[in-house]
Design goal:
Layout lengths: L5 H31 L8 H25 L2 H27 L2 H12 L3 H11 L11 H7 L14 H38 L13
Helix pairs in contact: 1-2, 1-7, 2-3, 2-7, 3-7, 4-7
Length: 209
Amino acid sequence: MVCGGFACSRNALCALNVVYVLVGLLLIGVAAWGRGYGIVYSLHIIGGVIAVGFFLLLIAIVGLIGAINHHQVMLFFYMIILGLVFIFQFGVSCSCLALKRSKQESLLSGAWEMSNDTKKSLENSFNCCGLFNNTAEFKADVELCNAACTKSRGGCVSCGDVMMEHAGEALKILGGVGLFFSFTEILGVWLAMRYRNQKDPRANPSAFL
């Protein structure tokens, strides 16, 4: 059977949506990993990544059901929503990759001053003290720090350095994966449009729209 046939288009669309499910789970998982390191308190763009992953997961499920059943209405809304997801995902991915270190440090500094409970939680979780060694509050934060590293001979590293390392890793993964697979969503829209207009050979000819 040629690849332009009905069955081939259906299988290709199903396979593409399975990939979207995996990508959506990956984006949510990496963003949740970043959240676990407290990065989400300062880099709110990660919240946008979670939203992209969630909607991509939902629309992929809708696309799977629509492709299996050749459901005209579901495939129509699938094309529209997937196009919107592409625009949003492309923008968020570019933002992740374009976020400079100085901007990350500024966001981290702003979030660090929001709550003393957040400071203590991050210091105990990362076994570090203070944010950045070049800030006026660093010395005071180190004196009040009760992380386990304060009792060691080697001393403590700054929490800013630890968080920046993990933030950089998370942003590179999220931006790279999101940007690469955002272009495949154009293929998904085109494939769904083509498949929607094809005639199911098993269906009643008079029922075809």
